[in-house]
Amino acid sequence: MKVVTTVADLRAAVTRAHGEGKRIGFVPTMGNLHAGHMALVETAGQRADFVVASIFVNPLQFGANEDLASYPRTLAADQEKLIETGCHLLFTPTVEEMYPNGQAMQTIVRVPGVSEGLCGGSRPGHFDGVSTVVSKLFNMVQPDLAVFGEKDFQQLAVIRTMVRDLNMPIQIIGEPIVRADDGLALSSRNGYLSAEERAAAPVLHHTLLQMADAIRQGERDYPALLASGKQALQIAGLRPDYLELRNALDLQAATTEHRELVILAAAFLGKTRLIDNLLVETGPAAS
Question: Is 159 in contact with 40 (CB distance < 8 Å)?
């Protein structure tokens, strides 16, 4: 695996691969890689001939009181995992390389509608930072396809909308959530949890499972179902940021007419913010 730090070297390597007729797959990350990230790289390798990954902790998507300074940076370990998983090229730019004119003067890419509410409501400006850095990376790498995890469901929807609206010739692939044996969605932020918090964390996923089962069995009083779910999280010691039921296709508020739904949740456990989601197809309404 070759490691490059500049846009010029990145483009030179990708141009060579394109010149050899190779299909380019891309996996953008912020590092501190775990099995969930490796699944993205594996999928890229199955769909493409040349896999590019990036590691960049993007300051543009962090709020003033968020964990930019303390976000775990584990480059050496990340490189070993990428080599083992078959990555061909790793791009690790500095902030100055990504934003040479400074963040304040950076052109911003904003995806309205789908970026609003949920994590976008809790983290103002977050998805502007995500869509901006991903659009820059797409322009730098020029991939044929890119793989993103479905754990960040709203982020995936934002990227898909951006690619469609800006006519980017890139196939976006969503990779299913990778979970620990107890159901907790793998995340770099899980490392912040104490042993006691880690033991309580799976209740987030279990609550979504119970809600999904109720919907499949015909429950259509969605406000009551959401209220019950929030109460279950609170009893277990989590502090819900949001728990919402949306149409899976466009993230609009779910109605009884929708058939493909997604339950989306974010909750604090101690100081750690966990997110999760679960897709559910509705069954017949309860009589």
Answer: no
Q: Write out pLDDT tens, residues 60-114.
A: 999 888 889 989 999 999 999 999 999 999 999 999 999 999 999 999 999 999 9
For 81, the 3-state DSSP assignment is helix
Q: List the one residue out of 50, 53, 54, 60 whose CA is nearest residue 23.
A: 50
Distance (Å, rounded) from C-alpha 93 to C-alpha 143? 17
Angular region, 138: left φ>0, alpha ψ -120 to 50, beta rest: alpha
Q: Which of 37, 88, 205, 258 is catalytic?
A: 37
d(CA 25, CA 240): 36
Structural element, H or E, at residue 180 = none
**Coil, helix or strand at residue 125:** coil
The two three-digit tokens of residue 24, written as one number: 């380019």
Residues of the chain where predicted confidence (pLDDT) is lower than 70 = 284-287
- The angle subtended at Cα 177 by Cα 174 and Cα 182, nearest 5°, is 175
Q: What is the pLDDT of residue 285?
A: 65
- 37 is known as an active-site residue: yes
